[in-house]
Amino acid sequence: MKKVKKLLSVLAVMLLIVCMAVPVSAAGKISKNKATLLTGQTLKLKLSGTKGKTKWTSSKKSVATVSGSGKVTAKKSGSATITAKVGKRSILAK
Q: Is the Cβ–Cβ distance between 20 and 49 less than 8 Å?
């Protein structure tokens, strides 16, 4: 029973909400608006509408990590901001 409650709490808390936090002139769109992941699950994010190499980062690597190709992996319950940066332009995902 405790494992079920823990799993449900992880599911509820593990929200990665993508929000556009850049001016309209900095075109770019991330493929997912929000996502819920359990520990160990992954999600591939894609950035469209931009040219050049995208650098992906996570604000809380203990909660979620992101590879150079945009693959997000949930590490534990919580929330993290995922940032895609192309040149000087940044698009944030929470």
A: no
